[in-house]
Amino acid sequence: MKRKLLLAALLLPVLASAQPRLQSYLDSLVRTEPFRSAQLGVLAVRVNGDTLACLHPFQKMEPASNTKLITTGVALQELGADYRFRTGIGYSGTLSDGVLHGDVYIIGGGDPTLASRDSIASSIESVFAQWKRLLTQAGIRRIEGDILGDGRWLDGEKELASWLYEDIGTYYGTGADGLNFYRNKKDFKVSAGAAVGDPVHIQPAYPDTPWMTYRYQGTTGKAGTGDLLYLFTNDLAPVGEIRGTFAVDRKPKTVECSNKYPAWTCAHEFYQYLKNSGMPVSGYGDVDAGGRIRKDLYSANGARNAEAVTVLGSTQSPALRRIAYIVNQRSDNLYAEALLRALGREKRGSACYDSCRVAEKAAFRKLGVNPDYGVDLHDGSGLSRKNTVSPDFFCRFLRALMEKPVFEDFANTLTQPGKGSQAGRMRGESQEVRDRVFYKSGSMEGVRCYTGFITPRDGGKEDTIIFSIMLNSYSGPNWIAMSRIDKIIALLAAEN
């Protein structure tokens, strides 16, 4: 007889209750290479408590982007599916005869979709038009001052020291700012040289960043080596260097890198928009974390303090449910970090990561999930190698979330094998099986994780399977890892 499992309790007694066929497969898997040298943790339970698979369920491992399941679930629960980020427009100084003797402030509210070009977001041209309309409705026809990007709403560090150095210069390793712009990216047009060893041809593209100094050390690599170019940069000075190789047989492409000055970039773009649309304006800059207006990124000398602002209005992001969808479908790190830091800002009054972790743990307790064991999270995206979560915690978290009204919105964010980024998964299974599997994948070097749900062919909610498969320290071919994980999921689906 299958032993019932109380998900909020310890799972040690349930090993014997796992399904023999699947458990036998797991046991044989970890006795052979390359899995014998790796760490594999698996837990799969039905909502009614039946245990279907159990292997090292309490072992905390790196979750990679499975972290985003927790980030989106907590954000939906705590902030609400209809929560929206707001970006304000205001001004300082005095207004006389249509002339503003002061500055225009773009007051960031953490919106990660601003100028993102995502289908869920308004175009930046329409947003800029709304901002200009707010200015003209206030009687402003000329600005004898600057456009200032103010990203102070998200205080604290933009990225963690535990993120890999090579990651933070990439588009997927850029941190969230109070005023984000174009997903905090900088594009470069790249093409290989004529022969191996020749310099790579690199040209800066959108957005325009004339304050930046870029150096290019990339060389043309051997055929088959792919794109191994990385931008090395930080927000301490407006300097960056692209290093690495770009294979001689690669076609020209756009390489997306990190932009460490999104608030400055947003101010510059709106400044250009106003000038081109007939509203004179003197210049642009930003407001740093200390509240000082910067016109020079190399030096703070002569910087003045930000002034009191008259707020004219605001624009807003899409609803959180739609942002969460992008987070899990695209595995978007920036959007995930924006959600976590908004949680800290709204619930603790600060977006620094320490406050975010406190807010997240409080959310776990409200859900009835004990955060004192099985979880140690440092960010919202999974970029940090310090993140550790156990399969047991993932299952407890998802089980608790299923009882909440936001669960439908959460479940809609998950992907499925055979679709989108998971188009190659479970190819050997029937469409009927793949249609019942919903999960979030997570991967980085040596890490492959899949966590989610399998709905029953027949029956109700109590027969739904919750599962978490976590593979760490894996050094074999990726196709072997993925084929074995696919088989585990298929064997689980066969039980339902």
Kindly summarize this structure in a few lines:
Helices cover 26% and strands 25% of the residues.
Care to describe what's here?
By secondary structure, the chain is α+β, with helices and mostly antiparallel strands. It has two domains: 12-81 and 321-494, Beta-lactamase, CATH 3.40.710.10; 84-318, no CATH class. It has eleven helices and 23 strands. It has helices spanning 20-29, 67-79, 124-137, 262-276, 320-330, 333-348, 353-367, 391-401, 407-411, 431-434, 478-494, and strands at 39-46, 51-55, 86-91, 94-96, 99-101, 104-107, 142-150, 185-191, 201-204, 213-216, 219-221, 227-233, 239-247, 253-258, 281-287, 292-294, 304-305, 310-316, 375-376, 388-389, 437-444, 447-454, 465-472. The strands form five sheets. Strands 3, 4, 5, 6, 7, 15, 16, 17 and 18 form a nine-stranded mixed sheet that branches. Helix 2 (67-79) crosses helix 6 and helix 6 crosses helix 7 (353-367). It is globular, with a radius of gyration of 25 Å. It starts with 19 loop residues before the first helix and ends with a helix. The relative contact order is 0.19.
